């Protein structure tokens, strides 16, 4: 078999060639269902929220840093009527203590959770910064905060089909074609007090975090019960305000990125469509799609070879778990878990989250 990449496949992978396998018009009514989305107050996240509301979802919980931005989205994107079904919860995903507090609160308050969109992302940044726990900031926001949040919400996702008569719940993780620029994860560099700065280093840090999104999803897909489907997707080259970050990385030429993608990229609707597909389409269950990577619109696609490295995915999971366990106050946290949900042997059909301090195993 030739090792030369198929040019058409590369165009699909990077969002320059799009085929549509599903339409937002195919979204069924979502009455009574509950979704949670990180970074849902702007860009693609706000559009995903809008589409869920347009299809009559019961409620959407938006986790974001800025309430001001959230209120702008309510007024300008969703409108007062649709926006009445959206709840704002403030959290900085880079801060694991804040994530723990919110995750524990939501796990106790919510009666159901049908969809979890792990969408928030720190963009490209040529400056090197660290989180409150000393983790490189882009990695802390884009991956580690989501990993930690999932530990608290997964029992609810697993229980919802049993308690609310639905066939499955979904976890949808946002990644990027730029994951292909990362050659791996050097865990020793994630906790450096200072690191390289500049355009190249900034792009590499972003690519590394997006690689982690895919590895996390694949490790998660092997740990969840059969009624939870976890998949990861690339929304495409959508010219949102996030593309302004390229100006800070490559200077004035960065302004051309948004201009180019306004001509050849995806629309906001296209960017949101694959996420909504993964959240609602029966095809996901029928095809037993777990831990797969998707590109616009609703197309299965290959990833880089390193993103398929199962050993690296497991190392990332263990490292992320250890970082979460270091957070002050995590020990002793007890999140209700449905009876029979967790088994120590990790047998098929049971959740086995290597995060015992957050989840108390139910009696067998």
Gap between N and C termini: 49 Å
The DSSP helix count reads 11
What spatial form do the alpha-carbon principal axes imply? globular
Percentage beta strand: 5-15%
Low-confidence runs of at least 5 consecutive residues: 329-364
Count the beta strands. Answer: 8
Arrangement of strands in the largest sheet: 3-2-1-4-5-6-7-8
Mean pLDDT: 85
C-alpha Rg, in Å?
19 Å
User: Main β-sheet, in a few words?
Assistant: 8 strands, mixed
Q: Helices and strands, in N-to-C order?
A: HEHEHEHEHEHEHHHHEEH
Judged by helices, strands and strand pairing, the structural class is alpha/beta
**Helix share of residues?**
40-55%
Secondary structure: elements and pairs:
Elements: H1 7-13, E1 34-38, H2 43-54, E2 59-64, H3 67-83, E3 86-90, H4 96-109, E4 115-118, H5 137-164, E5 169-174, H6 199-221, E6 228-233, H7 245-250, H8 255-264, H9 268-280, H10 282-286, E7 293-295, E8 299-300, H11 310-325
Parallel strand pairs: 1-2, 1-4, 2-3, 4-5, 5-6, 6-7
Antiparallel strand pairs: 7-8
Helix pairs in contact: 2-3, 2-9, 4-5, 5-6, 6-11
Question: How is this structure best described in words?
Answer:
This protein is of the alpha/beta class. 41% of the residues lie in helices and 10% in strands. It contains 11 helices and 8 strands. The chain has helices spanning 7-13, 43-54, 67-83, 96-109, 137-164, 199-221, 245-250, 255-264, 268-280, 282-286, 310-325, and strands at 34-38, 59-64, 86-90, 115-118, 169-174, 228-233, 293-295, 299-300. The longest helix is centred in the middle third of the chain and has 28 residues, at 137-164. The chain is globular and about 50 Å long. The relative contact order is 0.15.
């Amino acid at each position: 078999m030739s090792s030369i990449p198929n040019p058409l496949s590369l165009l699909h992978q990077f969002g320059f060639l799009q085929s549509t396998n599903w339409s937002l018009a195919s979204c069924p009514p979502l009455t009574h269902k509950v979704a949670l989305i990180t970074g849902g107050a702007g860009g693609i996240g706000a559009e995903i929220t809008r589409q869920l509301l347009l299809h009559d979802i019961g409620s959407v919980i938006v986790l974001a840093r800025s309430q001001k931005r959230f209120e702008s989205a309510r007024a300008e994107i969703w409108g007062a009527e649709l926006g009445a079904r959206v709840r704002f919860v403030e959290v900085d995903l880079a801060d694991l203590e804040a994530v723990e507090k919110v995750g524990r609160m939501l796990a106790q308050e919510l009666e159901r959770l049908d969809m979890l969109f792990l969408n928030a992302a720190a963009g490209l940044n040529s400056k090197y910064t660290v989180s409150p726990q000393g983790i490189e900031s882009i990695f802390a926001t884009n991956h580690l905060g989501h990993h930690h949040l999932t530990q608290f919400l997964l029992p609810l996702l697993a229980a919802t089909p049993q308690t609310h008569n639905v066939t499955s719940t979904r976890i949808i993780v946002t990644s990027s074609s730029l994951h292909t620029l990362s050659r791996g994860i050097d865990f020793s560099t994630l906790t450096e007090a200072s690191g390289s700065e500049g355009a190249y280093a900034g792009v590499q840090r972003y690519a590394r975090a997006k690689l982690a999104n895919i590895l996390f999803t694949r490790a998660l897909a092997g740990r969840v019960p059969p009624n939870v489907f976890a998949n990861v997707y690339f929304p495409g080259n959508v010219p949102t305000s996030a593309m302004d970050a390229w100006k800070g990385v490559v200077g004035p030429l960065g302004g051309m990125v948004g201009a180019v993608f306004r001509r050849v990229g995806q629309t906001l609707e296209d960017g949101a469509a694959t996420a909504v597909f993964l959240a609602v389409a029966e095809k996901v269950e029928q095809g037993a799609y777990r831990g797969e990577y998707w590109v616009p619109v609703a197309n299965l696609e290959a990833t880089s070879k390193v993103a398929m490295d199962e050993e690296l995915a497991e190392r990332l999971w263990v490292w992320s778990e250890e970082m979460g366990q270091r957070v002050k106050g995590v020990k002793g946290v007890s999140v209700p878990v449905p009876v029979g949900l967790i088994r120590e042997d990790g047998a098929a059909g049971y959740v086995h989250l290597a995060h015992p301090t957050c989840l108390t195993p139910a009696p067998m």
